[in-house]
């Protein structure tokens, strides 16, 4: 008796969700066409039970995973990405975003050997076209993602500008000020810029009849970037920050300061084991650049001689 075989890769029973692989063997003489049609319809229903993941949900998963395969680390568009189920559908997994993960096609599919059929070439071309379309859609998703980030950046900058206006009522940043603000935010971060704004207002704003003066507002705004820099320097190198602070004292007290030379002399003094406290106190009592320079150079020379004498005595 002749028979034919229908291969079903995965078959799910209606009870207990037991999954097993089985062939269905039909006797060609006793199964009529109606029975075959009904069987094929049932097979199609089984094979298509997995619901397609909506494009919007796929985009959210890609965006959450930064368009990167979570198995191998390759990124789109270098590889074609797909959505993988952490808990397989066959084992009760769902299309919940918590059960979905970004995978490249190679990691998701792995290697498998399939027998070629008469339509293998056409099937390969069709898959290539589908892959190209999928890659195109993923690139479009990435552009949408980048645009949303740009919009977020502009929104944060505008909020910072509004914060400045709240600190100095009646004043707003012009177009150039907005550009500077955006640069500060990218370089130092949102929180640091906000903190530096408040410090600038507290230290430099002057009031007439409880209204901030235009000149003091301009001075305070111009100090924001420097405050950000100084705070960053203080975190990364506290000693260097103190030296810049001492140089700032000189700039506030003296009519002229050679900033480059002043910083070099302060470093030389520090290398000679002169305390920062002594250097700071000396800066606070200086009245002119020439006098301060002569005093520091003399102090460094005497301290170096003292250091050499102490070294000889120790030997």
Question: Mind explaining what this structure looks like?
Answer:
By secondary structure, the chain is mainly alpha-helical. It folds into four domains: 1-49, no CATH class; 53-108, no CATH class; 147-228; 237-306. The protein contains eleven helices and six strands. The protein has helices at 33-47, 55-64, 105-109, 120-167, 175-188, 190-204, 214-236, 238-253, 259-271, 276-285, 289-314; strands at 3-12, 19-27, 81-85, 100-104, 207-208, 211-212. The strands form three sheets. The protein has a two-stranded antiparallel ribbon with strand order 1-2. A two-stranded antiparallel ribbon has the order 3-4. Helix 4 (120-167) crosses helix 5 and helix 9 (259-271) packs parallel to helix 11.
Q: Return the average pLDDT rounded to an integer.
A: 79
* Helicity level: 55-70%
Order of helices and strands: EEHHEEHHHHEEHHHHH
Distance between the termini: 110 Å
Number of strands: 6
Tell me, briefly, the overall form: elongated
Biggest beta sheet summary: 2 strands, antiparallel
Give the structural class. Answer: mainly alpha
Q: Report the uncertain regions.
A: 1-36, 42-48, 111-118
**Number of helices in the DSSP assignment:** 11
| Proportion in β-strands | 5-15%
| Number of domain modules | 4
What would you report as the Rg, rounded to the nearest angstrom? Answer: 37 Å
Query: Strand arrangement, largest sheet?
Result: 1-2
């Amino acid at each position: 008796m002749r028979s034919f075989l229908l291969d079903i890769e995965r078959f799910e029973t209606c009870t207990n969700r037991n999954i097993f692989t089985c062939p269905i063997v039909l006797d060609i003489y006793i199964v009529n066409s109606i029975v075959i049609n009904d069987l094929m319809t049932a097979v199609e229903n089984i094979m298509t039970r997995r619901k397609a993941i909506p494009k919007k949900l796929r985009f959210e998963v890609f965006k959450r995973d930064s368009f990167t395969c979570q198995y191998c680390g390759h990124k789109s568009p270098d590889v074609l990405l797909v959505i993988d189920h952490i808990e397989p559908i066959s084992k009760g997994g769902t299309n919940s975003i918590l059960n979905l993960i970004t995978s490249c096609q190679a990691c998701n599919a792995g290697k498998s050997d399939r027998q070629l059929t008469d339509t293998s070439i056409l099937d390969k071309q069709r898959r290539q076209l589908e892959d190209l379309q999928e890659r195109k859609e993923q690139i479009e998703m990435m552009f949408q993602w980048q645009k949303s980030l740009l919009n977020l950046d502009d929104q944060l900058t505008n909020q910072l500008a509004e914060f400045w206006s709240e600190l100095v009522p009646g004043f707003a940043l012009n177009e150039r000020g907005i550009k500077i603000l955006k640069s500060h935010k990218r370089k130092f971060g949102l929180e640091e810029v906000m903190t530096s704004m408040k410090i600038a207002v507290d230290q430099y704003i002057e009031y007439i009849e409880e209204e901030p003066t235009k000149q003091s507002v301009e001075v305070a705004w111009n100090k924001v970037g420097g405050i950000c820099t100084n705070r960053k320097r203080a975190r990364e190198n506290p000693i260097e920050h103190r030296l810049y602070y001492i140089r700032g004292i000189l700039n506030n007290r003296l009519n002229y300061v050679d900033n480059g030379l002043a910083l070099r002399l302060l470093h030389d003094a520090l290398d000679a084991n002169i305390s920062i406290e002594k250097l700071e106190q000396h800066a606070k009592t200086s009245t002119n650049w020439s006098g301060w320079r002569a005093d520091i150079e003399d102090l460094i020379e005497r301290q170096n001689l003292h250091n050499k004498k102490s070294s000889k005595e120790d030997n």
